[in-house]
Write a structure and sequence with these properties.
heterotrimer, A mainly alpha (287), B alpha/beta (341), C mainly alpha (336), B: four-stranded antiparallel beta sheet, 12 strands, 24% strand, globular
Chain lengths: 287, 341, 336
């Protein structure tokens, strides 16, 4: 395990880490500061229908004359919010199931991993479609929760594997002998060891959840009465914006979705490389 | 006796994170003489396996050779990372008998195909029949049936695999053999056969010299002419095997020998005295003598500067400040402290 | 067939039957668990506006189809029996069309789009990934970042951009459908050319994304293999780099073959949005229309088909792995 200062020193020298961090921070800044700085309500009509960016609003207007830039800011913010809720829910559930399964071995492990494996096999998008159809109206929080509830099994499987390899370590034996409860050991002696992994799992889950939200929106099952990147895309498709060439309504949300996903995955892979230098393969230099 | 292999000031570091280094081999010099077996011993993590890789010139990312020079059979060998290696040198001049033979063979290739690949890399004109014939003769010496040539690695037991690897490593009659824990997976009789084969090849002059990395003292006693003790990436002591084992000069060797259960009547009564503490983190090694944080004789000088190399006996070197002050004085009684109440 | 192998198959079969049962149960209960669910809502709608003669006929069919006169578990049993008989009911929005017929018409389009994209993407991606691991240096760094970008952006992002650039801004390709408006699917040269013209853009968008994902996977597998002991050992014996790379790539291919089988499982459900973007007449567009029309039997039919495809692919992977006993699996694949 790397110490914190060494980690920072190492990270700063990795250009891939820097690029991804800058990308993620830029998107975050846009999503958090944007809605505070724009003077508009996202639903306010500010100009003509489908006005091009050449006119006053910097990114043009949509089918109803709403300011596209403001819509994009709110959409990015809500998409990230949904992604964060989903990522948090998935990691929490994954840690709960994974540590318990990995720590208690035997029947408990087999039962929990059996359920996990069945759920991994059933494609998450199907469960999401069925759940979303059932919930007539879906708030951003609901969207985040249902995405999180369907995406924890991968995290659970990885956490279980790491926990069961920790189980045989000396410090856990000592904790067990000193009479700590199973839950106490998991919290004090297991979770701190897998913390860096959990951070990486969260970035991965966040990226996946943002894309999942967009996919559901494009299927017509996105959050109701909320603007998200997926909803913006769905509107453009519904109003035939692509075929009318109104590029400013669909290229920016597509771009933002790609940047969020690419930035987070690049961050994840560069963290992985910092922890495992072997992965740098030919990219490593001996100087 | 001429020097077959001379290494000076070898430095080989593992990349740690993106900017740090783990100094696994840090300033190691050694000499292997014609016809000799040089034992290399030390705790796990002392850099002895890394040293073996450097000597066999197969250091690969994330292991980087940062300095030093290596000369084998009078020829300078380029070892620095990035230097072009002569693949003909590998296997014929220096050959590695690797540790953990379990994974040393390609799982999807029959032994005979690999043997053929090895031999034809050095002699493009060789035939399958010729290589099989050559391998069969060596296998027989290690009591292995010829049918192992038709096997896939997973069809062989651990001991068989280790012996197959031993055969392949010596098949090209290398001048220098670097054997890294070659006996660890073997039972006593297989161990004996392998050591006998190595001795025989050496006697017949088929192999010029052997660097034998091991942590098993009985094996060193039986076969090594000289023994080198490594600690934290550096050489603590090197000398005739009997001297190093029974009259160790360096405090680390003394502790190591005391901690190792040697089933010999002369040493049986000695209590096992565990070394306190753990080997240092080689990404930030201690200053001065690397053993000083665990050394019972450590003084301030030990933490400040690297100790000088002393000669406690003929052909016997040790690097230690304490020794520098006490050389000539009687050696401390081993285990004396341990029997105190 | 050895007894161990038979036991292996039976265990796996039982496991997948459990997974299938779990999936079917979810398929049935999930939409019905929430109060005010669409089945209830549809009922209400039919009761309110069910004046016309055709509507009441639909309503009757609806009651019979869902066995709404029975308790929930009775409805579930009837659903299971119907599935077992291959009957997925009738569509609401395209009444009285049968769900199986509608899906049967859509699936060939989806497979025609996905199968070549997956196969070709797998081959090209593996070649590129292997090349990157072999060449290293700048080629590897550039390819890795490009491939990572392609595999991390949503698969429909490229579809949207391609549609806009090559069908709207520079109208080289048609912008919608699987064939020109006014023509009908038939076995003729002109129809084939027309369909191909419509086919290329969605196909290309899927292919490029597939290449990216496979290249990332192959590269990391190859780098993992390059770090293994047998590579070190072969190198230490002077075996040429070219030959060692031969070992590495053959071994790295093994997990990639599993990967291929698994991505074949996404044959039906993996390109839903691409089809929606291009209004391509496949399963995705069918599902999209069903969702918009609240066509419940059709939605459930499509989700079931997606699940069955994934489970089947997983089962086949396990069977293939079992047929080659795990211990000799590595060996067999090495045979020339």
């Amino acid at each position: 395990m790397l110490t914190r200062t060494r980690f920072l020193r190492t990270a700063i020298r990795s250009s891939r880490f820097n690029t991804s961090l800058v990308l993620v921070l830029l998107v975050l800044g846009f999503a958090i500061l944007g809605p505070l700085l724009t003077g508009h309500d996202p639903n306010a009509v500010v100009g003509g229908m489908n006005a091009s960016p050449a006119a006053h609003p910097p990114l043009g207007t949509d089918n109803f004359g709403r300011d596209e830039l403001t819509l994009l800011m709110y959409g990015t913010r809500n998409s990230l919010e949904i992604g964060a809720i989903a990522g948090l829910a998935a990691v929490l559930l994954g840690v709960l199931v994974g540590t318990v399964a990995g720590f208690y071995a035997g029947m408990v492990e087999e039962a929990l991993m059996g359920v996990t494996n069945v759920l991994i096999t059933i494609p998450a998008i199907v469960v999401l479609i069925l759940l979303s159809v059932a919930l007539g109206s879906r708030s951003a929080v609901t969207m985040g929760l249902i995405i999180g509830v369907t995406s924890w099994p991968w995290t659970a499987r990885a956490v279980a594997a790491q926990t069961s390899s920790l189980r045989t370590r000396e410090h856990i034996d000592i904790a067990r002998l000193s009479g700590s409860s199973g839950f106490g050991i998991i919290v004090r002696d297991v979770i701190p060891y897998i913390l860096s992994y959990l951070g990486m799992a969260f970035t991965l889950q966040l990226a996946t959840a943002v894309l999942t939200e967009a996919a559901l929106s494009l299927l017509g099952l996105g959050p109701t009465n909320t603007i998200s990147l997926g909803i913006l895309l769905q509107w453009s498709l519904l109003w035939e914006a692509v075929r009318q060439g109104v590029w400013w309504t669909f290229i920016p949300p597509t771009f933002f979705l790609s940047v969020v996903s690419f930035g987070l995955l690049l961050l994840n892979s560069s963290l992985d490389e910092i922890y495992n230098p072997r992965l740098q393969g030919g990219g490593g230099s001996c100087d | 006796m001429t020097d077959l292999l001379v290494a000076e000031d070898l430095r080989a570091y593992y990349r740690h994170g993106l900017s740090g280094w783990i100094r696994a081999v840090d300033g190691v010099s050694l000499t292997l003489r014609e016809g000799e077996i040089l034992g290399v011993a030390g705790e796990s993590g002392c850099g002895k396996s890394t040293l073996a890789m450097v000597l066999a010139s197969i250091a690969r990312w994330p292991l980087c050779v940062k300095g030093g020079r290596l000369e084998v059979a009078g020829q300078e060998v380029p070892i620095r990372s990035g230097a072009a290696t002569d693949t003909q040198h590998r296997g014929t001049v220096v050959s590695l008998m690797p540790q953990g033979a379990m994974n040393s063979l390609n799982p999807t290739q029959r032994v005979r195909d690999f043997v053929f690949d090895v031999l034809r890399s050095h002699d493009p004109g060789t035939t399958r029949t010729a290589t099989a014939e050559r391998a069969r003769e060596r296998l027989d010496r290690l009591h292995l049936p010829a049918r192992v040539l038709d096997a896939y690695p997973h069809q062989l037991s651990g001991g068989m695999k280790q012996r197959v690897v031993a055969v392949i490593s010596t098949l090209l009659d290398p001048r220098v053999l670097i054997a890294d824990e070659p006996t660890s997976a073997l039972d006593v009789s297989a161990q004996r056969a392998l050591l006998a084969l190595m001795a025989q090849l050496l006697e017949q002059g088929i192999i010029g010299g052997i660097v034998l990395v091991t942590h098993e003292l009985p094996i060193l006693r039986n076969v090594a002419d000289r023994t080198m003790i490594m600690y934290a990436g550096q050489v603590s002591e090197v000398g005739p095997t009997e001297k190093v084992i029974f009259e160790p000069a360096h405090p680390y060797t003394q502790a190591l020998m005391a901690a190792t259960l040697v089933l010999e009547s002369a040493t049986k009564r000695q209590r096992i005295e565990g070394l306190e503490g753990a080997p240092p983190d080689l990404s930030q090694p201690p200053t001065g003598c690397r053993f000083h944080p665990r050394c019972r004789y450590a003084t301030e000088a030990c933490a400040e500067a690297f100790p000088p190399t002393l000669h406690p006996g003929p052909d016997h070197d040790a690097a230690c400040w304490w020794l520098a002050q006490h050389l000539g004085a009687p050696q401390p009684e081993l285990g004396a402290r341990a029997v105190e109440p | 067939m050895s007894p161990t192998f038979r036991r292996y198959i039976l265990t796996k079969l039982a496991w997948y039957l459990v997974a299938l049962l779990a999936a079917v149960t979810l398929n049935f209960f999930l939409p019905r668990l929430v109060p005010g669910n669409p089945v209830d809502a549809l009922m209400a709608r039919f009761l309110q506006g069910g004046a016309g003669a055709s509507a009441s006929k639909t309503y009757q069919a609806f009651i019979t189809q869902f066995h709404l006169d029975r308790p929930l578990w009775g409805q579930f049993l009837a659903y299971l029996v119907n599935i077992f008989r291959g009957d997925l009911g009738q569509s609401f929005s395209l009444f009285p069309a049968r769900v199986t017929t509608l899906i049967g018409q859509a699936v060939p389009w989806t497979i025609a789009l996905q199968l070549p994209a997956i196969l070709l993407g797998w081959i090209l991606g593996n070649l590129l990934g292997a090349l990157a691991a072999y060449k290293r240096g700048a080629f590897d760094r550039n390819l890795f970042v490009t491939a990572l970008a392609l595999s991390s952006i949503p698969y429909y992002a490229l579809a949207i951009v391609l549609l806009y650039v090559l069908a709207v801004a520079i109208p080289v390709f048609p912008s919608a459908g699987g064939y020109s408006f006014g023509t009908f699917p038939q076995l003729s040269w002109s129809f084939f050319l027309d369909a191909l013209h419509h086919y290329l853009l969605p196909f290309l968008s899927l292919l490029v994304i597939a290449i990216g994902g496979q290249a990332v996977g192959m590269r990391s597998m190859a780098i993992y293999e390059l770090g293994s002991d047998y590579v070190n050992y072969a190198t230490s014996l002077g075996v040429s780099d070219r030959r060692v790379l031969g070992y590495v790539f053959r071994n790295a291919m093994l997990p990639q073959i599993t990967g291929l089988a698994l991505s074949l499982g996404t044959l039906v459900g993996g390109a839903l949005i691409t089809e929606i973007v291009f209004s391509y007449p496949g399963v995705g567009t069918l599902l999209f229309n069903a969702i918009n029309a609240n066509d419940y039997p059709l939605i459930q039919g499509v989700t079931l088909i997606i699940i069955v495809a994934v489970l089947l692919a997983n089962f086949l992977v396990d069977l293939a792995y079992g047929a080659i006993d795990p211990r000799i699996r590595a060996a067999r694949s090495g045979e020339r």
